[in-house]
Design brief:
By secondary structure, the protein is mainly α. The protein has one domain. The protein is 63% helix and 5% strand. It is built from two helices and two strands; from the N terminus they run αββα. Helix 1 packs antiparallel against helix 2. 0% of the residues are buried.
């Protein structure tokens, strides 16, 4: 029989590991979405050798730029409302 304190510590550890795994999955998903969004947001012209972000020329109301800002804000939020 395990002591109650050890069981509580193990349960808390398991909970934290689950939160970390969920956060890692969330970050990987958001990174993939962001990467795909940025990739589609780039363009290459025969006259321009370097890739240029279209968002540099977009109005602040650009849907993709707004989505990328929302992504950055979501990524900055702590998982489970904790810092």
């Amino acid at each position: 029989m395990k002591c109650p304190t050890c069981e509580l510590v193990q349960a808390e550890r398991n909970r934290l590991v689950g939160e970390i795994e969920a956060a890692e999955h969330r970050i990987a998903t958001l990174e993939a979405i962001r990467s795909a969004a940025i990739e589609t947001h780039y363009y290459e012209s025969s006259e321009v050798r370097n890739m240029t972000l279209l968002s540099d020329r977009h109005r602040p109301s650009c849907t993709l730029c707004s989505a990328l800002e929302a992504y950055d804000a979501a990524l900055a939020q702590p998982v489970g409302g904790r810092a």
